[in-house]
Specification:
Elements: E1 5-11, H1 22-31, H2 36-46, H3 51-63, H4 67-72, H5 81-96, H6 102-108, E2 114-122, H7 123-133, E3 136-145, E4 148-155, H8 161-171, E5 173-181, H9 187-192, E6 195-200, H10 203-209, E7 215-218
Parallel strand pairs: 1-2, 1-5, 2-3, 5-6, 6-7
Antiparallel strand pairs: 3-4
Length: 220
């Protein structure tokens, strides 16, 4: 539970808390246990080495829909919520833990703040991370029908994280707000924060964020 008066620290997950695009890596983790056809199809729509991937990226720009993610989610269709949570726990333990960004963890583990994972990644994965680390979370939610995934999203957090942050800030007397992320789409979220930390890997990325004067965490 959040206290009525606290310091909030909103933390992105993919390529911030962990060196992973957790949605795609989780789906690859699940599909790796299936037949070759499924693995090849997933590779075709999600690998930067696949020509189809770039066609989907072009369609993304034309239609404003994330086609690689939308198609990749179809590989979860028919899985029960119990199966998804079990796979997500294994994915966290086997894949994510070794890829943790410890420099980011030191910020969200401060006893003086309430850390909240704010992610566009899917709920089974973010829930597993949050439970293992004693954190609160908000994430994109998979659509379920009769307890099974439909391959669609019920809630998509992409570009909407600042809305969640504003709501929480309005509901409580907040002493201060911190944000740590690497996502360009989190501009409005970072702008809200008193403490702004941005994960970058190049000077070009730094230049994008410089108008907000954040502290940079440089990764290789």
């Amino acid at each position: 539970m959040l206290s009525t008066q606290s310091s909030l620290f909103f933390c992105d997950v993919c390529d911030t808390l962990y060196r992973s695009n957790t949605t795609f890596d989780f789906i690859r983790f699940v599909v790796a246990k299936r037949g070759r056809v499924s693995r090849v199809l997933l590779w075709a729509i999600s690998s930067t080495q696949s020509p189809l991937f770039y066609v989907l990226i072009l369609l993304n720009k034309i239609t404003s829909r994330d086609w690689p993610r939308q198609l990749a989610l179809q590989f979860l269709r028919g899985m029960s919520s119990e199966e998804l949570e079990k796979e997500a726990t294994q994915f966290y333990q086997q894949y994510l833990v070794p890829r943790a960004n410890q420099e980011v963890f030191q910020y969200i583990k401060k006893p003086s703040v309430t850390a909240i994972l704010l992610s566009s990644s899917i709920s089974p994965v973010i829930k597993a991370i949050a439970q293992a680390n004693g954190l609160l979370y908000f994430s994109s939610e998979l659509e379920l029908n009769d307890g099974k995934a439909t391959g669609q999203l019920q809630i998509d957090m992409t570009g909407r994280k600042h809305e969640v942050a504003k709501k929480l800030m309005a509901e409580r007397a907040i002493l201060s707000v911190g944000v740590i992320t690497d996502n360009y789409s989190d501009w409005e979220l970072v702008k809200l924060a008193d403490e702004r930390l941005v994960v970058v890997a190049s000077e070009a990325q730094k230049n994008f964020w410089k108008p907000l004067s954040p502290h940079f965490i440089v990764v290789s």
